[in-house]
Structure formats: C-alpha cells, structure tokens
Model the fold of this input.
Amino acid sequence: MALMRSWVESANSPETDFPLNNLPYGVFEAGGHARMGVAIGDRILDVGAVGHGLDPALFAEPAWNAVMAAGPEVWAALRARLTELLSDPAHRAAVELHLVAQDSARMLMPFRVSEYTDFYASRHHAQNVGTMFRGPENALPPNWLSIPIGYNGRASSVVVSGTPVTRPWGQLKGPEDTLPRFGSCARFDLELELGAIVGQPSEGMVSVAEADRMIFGYVLLNDWSARDIQAWEYLPLGPFQAKATATSISPWIVTAAALEPFRTPTPKRERPLLPYLREPGPMLYDIDLEVALAPEGGTETVIACTNYREMYYSAAQQLCHHTTSGCPMRVGDLLGSGTISGAAPDSRGSLLELSWGGKTPVVLASGEERRFLEDGDTLTLRGVARGEDYRIGFGACSGQVRPAVDLPDWAAG
Amino acid sequence: MALMRSWVESANSPETDFPLNNLPYGVFEAGGHARMGVAIGDRILDVGAVGHGLDPALFAEPAWNAVMAAGPEVWAALRARLTELLSDPAHRAAVELHLVAQDSARMLMPFRVSEYTDFYASRHHAQNVGTMFRGPENALPPNWLSIPIGYNGRASSVVVSGTPVTRPWGQLKGPEDTLPRFGSCARFDLELELGAIVGQPSEGMVSVAEADRMIFGYVLLNDWSARDIQAWEYLPLGPFQAKATATSISPWIVTAAALEPFRTPTPKRERPLLPYLREPGPMLYDIDLEVALAPEGGTETVIACTNYREMYYSAAQQLCHHTTSGCPMRVGDLLGSGTISGAAPDSRGSLLELSWGGKTPVVLASGEERRFLEDGDTLTLRGVARGEDYRIGFGACSGQVRPAVDLPDWAAG
Done:
C-alpha cells in the first residue's frame, strides 16, 4: 500500500508518523480545555468541532470510549469520513479551521482504561528471564507453550506519555538477608510492550477471530517494573506492587484499520496449540520498536531495537484466552503484550535482559553505564510500521524517573 | 452497645439483620426502576425519594459511589440523619411513604466496582493450602508473615448475590497428562471472604490509620475458584482465568460505622511486622461467618462456620500495603480479605480445605457428599456481628452453579 495524500502538506512527508494512512486517535489540551483529536502530519484535527458528517455525540467526553462502544461499523465510517475530509481539497476551507499545531498541544490519556491485563508472551523474553532465574533447561514454565500467560494489572496506574514516574518504595529482601526491609527500589526497570485496546464488550467465550474484531487499536506501553520488589513478593500469587507504580502509554491510539496492511503471522508453534487458540489468519503486525534512554540533561542512546512480530501469541489469542472462564470484557480494557524481545542481545525489551540481571552494564553514548534505571533517566519507546513510501508511527511513549519520595515517619518506624 | 429503637417495628426484633444500628446501603429495583436504598427491619427506605435533609444529588445514580466520593463527613452526617428520621416518631408520617418491602424488591449491585484485589491473609487458610501443596514444613511461603499477599482480580466479574454462576471452561492438565486439554472445570469451589470497599481515593503511600479511614464498608464475598484451572495456569504469574468467572458479593454495604462496636485486634505476630504495617489499634471486627450448601431442590447444610477475627492481616493493613508502590486507589475499589479459615476442620472457608483436596468428602444433611461443587448447588454465605440484644447482619450472599455452556465448534476443534 502506498502513501495516501492529504491537503495537509506535512502529512505527505515520508518522515511523518502521521500520514493520512494513519489517522490515530488522541485527546489533547490546548487553550485550556481537553478535546478529542486526530493526528495528521504535524497537526491535530479537533474532531469534535468539525461537524460535516462527524457526529458530535461521539465526541462529547474527552475520551475515545464512546467511539469504541459505538462498534466496528461506526469505526469504519468515521475513518472513511476523516479520510475524505482530509484528502478532498473541497473540504479544506471548512476543515482547516479546526487544525491545531501538535507543538501547541499537551496530550492527555486517550481513553478511560477499564481494566488492565499484562501478558508474558514473547518467546525470547520468557527464555531470557527463565534462564536467569532457573537455568536454560528449565527456562520456560511448563504451561508457557500452551497458555498465553497473563495476570491482572492495575488500571489506576496507567498514565500517558510525559507523566513522570516516581521510584517506588517496597518490601525488599536480598538473598543474604534473613528478614525483609522497607526500602526504595534499587532495580527499577522498563518493559517494552505493545498495548491492545478492547473496543467491544463480550460475555462468555469468544474465538480468536471474534477477539481480533473486538480490538480497536494499539498503543506503545512501558510497564515500569520494580525487579527487587517483585522477587520477594511474587510467589505464589504473582506480581503485585512491583507492577503498580505506573504503566505509561503513548498518546495516540493507532487503529487496527491503519495497521491492516502490516499483518504478519505468529511464529511456528513449538507445541501444537489447543484448537481454541488456533488463528484463522495472520494476527501479528510488522512494527519496528525501539527503546531509548537519556540520562538527566544528556542525549539519548537507543538501547534496544525489536519488532512486534517477535510475539509468540497475538493480542487476539490473548483476548480469546482471557474470555475462556467466562470473564466479561469491557470497552476500554487494555492488554499489554508482555515484554517484546528478539533473539539478538540488543533486541531485548528490558534492562533486566539487556544487563543480564545487572551483570553486564549497558553502555550509553556518553560512556555512562546502566544496569537498572537511575533517577533522572528518561525512557522513550518508539514504534513504526513501514510502508513503501510512508510510515505508520505511534509517536513517543516517554517518562522520566523521579527520585523516591521521603519516607513518612510512620513507615520509617 | 444496645439496640437502638426505630418506629419501623420489624427493626426492633432481635432476629433482624437490619436494626437501626445497622443501616446498610444497597441498590434495589421495584416497580421497574433501580434506586438506592437503606435496609431497616424487613423494609427498604427509598433514600433518594425522602428529601427531609437527604441531598438528592447524592442519590442520582443508582450506585453508592457518589456518597463514598463525598467523604467521611458526609458519611457521618448521612448516618446521623437516617438515624433521626427512622427513630423519631415525628418523621414517621413523611418517611413511611418511602418504605418498600424487601420481599417485593430485587437487589442489584450496590456500587460500581472500580478495581478488585484479592488477598491471601488468613493464617489457617494459608497453612492448609500450603500443607496440601508443599507439606507442613514448607506450608507458608517465605514472605507470608511479612506481606499481606495480594493479586489483582477482575472487577468486571463481580456480581451481586442471586446471580447464577456458570461452571467455567479452561485449560486443564492432570499430573498424569503430558499435554493440557480444554475442559470444563471439575474442581469448582467457593471461597468465603469479606470484601472491604474503598470509599476515598489516594495517591502515594497511606498509613494503616489513614487506610482504615478510607474504608467505607464491608460486604460478604464469594470468590468462586476453579482449582484445576488454577493449578495449571498459576506459575509463575498467579491466578488468572481460575478466578475470573465470577465473584459474588452480598447486596448490602455494611458500613464501617455500624461495625465500630465490634472492633477486635489481629492475632499475635509470629514475626515482627515492618513499621509501616503496624496497627494503631484494633483493626479487625468480630463477625461470625458461615457457608451453607443446598443441592438442587434440596435443603441446605451449613458446611463451615468461622469468624473474621481469624484474619492475620486487616483490610486496613492490606490497603496500606496496596499503596506502597505509589499505586493510586480509587473510590469503589474492592478488596477481598482472602479465604477465611479457622483452626477447626469445620471452620474452613473453601471446599478445597473442607474436603482436604478432595480426599475427605463433606457429608450433607441429605447424606449426599461433596468434594467440590456440583451443578445445581446453591452456595450461601452469611455474616453477623452480635451485640448484646441486636445483630448487625450482612444479608445473604448466594449463587447457584449452572452447568458449563456447550463448547463452541471452534473450541472443540
């Protein structure tokens, strides 16, 4: 598929993340109020103000939940109408009035997160983490090749790109300690993920094909992780406070429709899947992903490059599995793919893997080293699907690490 | 504390769950529309219709979230005003018009659940389950005496008492099987718990004392559990689909204020707690709890009796721990205590424990045996705090097990 041209000139550049082919959905604040917007080149279309066939009822609340709830026919009609309005020069005069410069806008959460689930579904990530903790022979948990393993996360902790993240406190116990202590996290980490947004509700089991149709779009997702808190807390009921400090998402929802030309299959199965998890077609997308780290006041270094096709399970398979028990799914549910790592050492989606548990530091362009995150570090995820002469970009998903707060007296004891 | 008398005569009976001392909050449907109500004797006060100093803005949506959000001063003022209206005969004529018979009402969810967290915090339950799985020496996980262990559950699966619960499908793998299969749960179970409802939001860490003040009230909670699904899925990231079929709650929120006379301390610590978890006063409540099982068409047998004071950690400690990482808490968050078991064999809050992993069946009054739940079984939880001449009851938390749905073709393969 080739570039679709817009009368917004900046949308026709091969470098823009936001050509007419993309049309991602966000919420922005400019001039003091929050509104729903569509990115086009270096502009944002104030979509609730346009009229011209765009139903204002869909844009009443500054969140994309109402559009999602309206269903796939409305999704398709909205995309078609936006494409028309932004390509046909006849609409230019009327529509141009409602373009806002991205530079002058502050991005807000694009939707209300109903519930947040995080998965563990990249083969290399599971192999790496398992090897560090249990040795190479026992790296994969016995269920890993059969189940898209997931756990419920905390929706209240999901924040939009740009929100600073404060280093957490928690219970820590080193291998030499007899008792735990309450301390600030010393092994604070990122996880490079893609988030899938559930756009339609379900009751009862849904198939992989139905699950795929329920997904409205995708965001980049950084699941900030406190490795030392997790090590002490996670047995037997899984990660809890280690994952509850913050999860950052990129501000633009890239729709499944925009990603359609980039579909690619999941890898060859190492163990046959149960019938309910089999896919009717390619369910991943070819999306290049990268992680960059900038120390406070310094320049950034790209520390990892990978691709969403490294997933062993697709979001559709994860969503299908999520419903097997009869669990109701709701508009606005967010599914984290799990950390995405490739085979190469520089394609690992976490510092835990990149520094191999802290043993081999990552060297930044400045010469500084990182085993885990330092206060002041800014992490930025980027993602792009590459067409012949255009790119579908996600925009940046950034967050700076702030020092831990002072310990209150009652906690210091 | 003694019975407070109401002009609603049925509220003065020593047998009622709902004397004037209680005043629990629910949502009911009668005559076709959903409304907020307060239980008094065998009646419900249609609280949004009364006026007389009760602010109708608090009762606009049929859910108690707005009252919770209004804060502790409003909670106290509302309780004081309701007490006045229902005790002073001068108000009788005006207020009586707004009483509805409980018999004629259908109870609905009393509040919108924001997020749901479930804990693992009763000493005997942890000991029993650990002994079955790891032997008596390794029964308690190493972190258990230091952390109120919790995991995030699924808010969308919380239902009100009376809602039938459908036996789930899921991945199962017996110890002899080489590969998992997709089957309906054969070890479907209940968990007797108390649910604490977070009535005030927080950002950042809160102390146990602050956490205690954030809790609006309590409900009975049955965390339906698929033991065979859990056994295969839960390592390494905890329970997921095994806990996502349904969690039933009783329809009346019994306020912390009503339970105040029944405060009782947590048990002696077996290992000193870290300072942040130490309690400034008694944080549990003396609440008798029971589980009854009725086979389809049969009479019920009480299969377990225990008490909320069996908890090792209070809801306030759990909520405090929940915030250590900076996790924001929101109005309407629901915290399950974890299964509550006592020392005696008949005080265990799950069939897993009562039948000791299916080895020793529970014998019902009819002579029938139960290792796990059968289709058609109705489970009912009850709870009551006993004053000198009155009781603070929770009403029943019931649910009937329905057979698994037919497996769709795409899942049968």
User: Anything to note?
Assistant: Chain A has a mean pLDDT of 97. Chain A has two domains: 9-108, 116-412. Chain A has eleven helices and 27 strands. Residues 9-108 of chain A form a domain with the SH3 type barrels. fold (CATH 2.30.30.230).
